[in-house]
Amino acid sequence: MLAKANRVTTADEFRAAVRRGRRHATPEVVYYRLARDGQPLRFGFIVSRAVGGAVERNRLRRRMRAVGRELVDAGRAGEDVVVRALPGSAQLSWSELSGRMRAELAR
After folding, report:
1. What's 94's domain CATH number?
2. Which HAMAP family does UniProt cross-reference here (predicted)?
3. Are 35 and 78 in contact (CB under 8 A)?
4. What is the CA radius of gyration of the chain?
């Protein structure tokens, strides 16, 4: 679980990251990254019903939070990251999802 300090929680924070952040898309996920100097790394996740049923959406969200937690523990800081899951992302294995998220966020 991500600590409260490492979560994007309000609609205004999500909106700011999506509108003002840098966007990078892959076939399964869209990343929005908004720089915030001197602040902790924060994650927000958008997983719509188009991704799948409740079980698939919740599993995907838990996996993405786990990768986010590992990045926070590794000492990354200074930005808000909003991750929007696209249809097909629920079929990724743990290693594929983790590897792709790490590679995208290392840019």
Report:
1. 3.30.230.10
2. RNase_P
3. yes
4. 13
